[in-house]
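Pasting as-is:
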Amino acid sequence: MVPLLTATLTEINGPHQGAWVTTQTGEDWFIHFQDKDAFGRVVHLQPMRWKNDFPVIGADTDGDGTGEPVTTYKKPNVGKIYPIATPPESDEFNEPRLGLQWQWQANSQTNWHFSAPAYGFLRLFNRELPENFVNFGNVPNLLLQKFPAPNFTATTKVTFTPRTDGEKTGLIVTGLDYAYVAVEKKSEGLFISQTIVKDAEKGTLENAVAATPIKSGAFYLRVKITEDSKAQFAFSENGENFTNIGEPFTARKGKWIGAKVGIFAVRTGKTRETGYADFDWFRIE
């Protein structure tokens, strides 16, 4: 048996699974994915041709019939020219519905959030943590999206209006391990801290570190992700001068999926009137 596609000359591992696609102009292509750990399953499109009634996929430089994935290639001819585009990531929260890039950690409920497009923000209510709370691995109201690139920075502008102690909102990077930076209301005021949890599904307890008082409920949260999956969180009160919070965290994939980045608003204990966090925007660079 001759393998159709193998990766030895490039950094494309796998390739995994796939399908043969024929365009309306008669071109043949092969679609497959590459497992990139925290960055998820990246989709690739390989040129495909036929030789002696046998498919040749990718670049077959030595002519043995086994293709090598290409790293760059001309786009398929589908009968029309389309501009280069990427899936949405940033969100100004100016629409009545959440963008398709967002996904809740569990099936959403109507009392988790409120879209206010006329005012240009998304309100997350500080919902009570589950009764069996151990860590964020089983918290449903995390609003997340997949890592969009191997190097990126996510920044969000927040106005936090808590009602009781124990309410907090933050920016999270999550997978089998997770870390977040959060602002929490305590009796002494508002404090920002970082939390890191390894092996969340094993019931690892949370432990917040580097708690620092802040002056205002209006602030900016940021995380920078580098190609080696390192995440560094930062905080700003003016949107210009950012200070690193906590220690670098190595993002880790989830089960059959890559890591995700997103936002949340939660609280401990029961209350008759919950607070909220207004997210003015969430921007990926």
